[in-house]
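task queued by scheduler; priority normal; single chain, no ligands, no partner chains; default sampling; output format set to structure tokens
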Amino acid sequence: MYAIYIMEKYQRQGLGYRLISTVATRLLQSVISSMLVWVLADNPASGFYQSLGGQQVNQKQIEIGTVQLVEVAYGWTDTRKGMI
């Protein structure tokens, strides 16, 4: 998974959790039990991925237009254990 974006008015309704869970389930159906999502480091949603058990596993600098940004990767090594 690269990233998800939910409009602010739809946040905190469980949509993000449902999206992440659906992706994890589909990956498991393809015999893939790990998952990774990239998030801009200053994104307030970083806590969301941590609350689901994602661990920071990498970071990189990217450029969008002329702006340098940092992206952080949150990963789950075994989604069969479920996401809290």
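post-processing summary
- The longest helix spans residues 15-29.
- The two ends are 18 Å apart (CA to CA).
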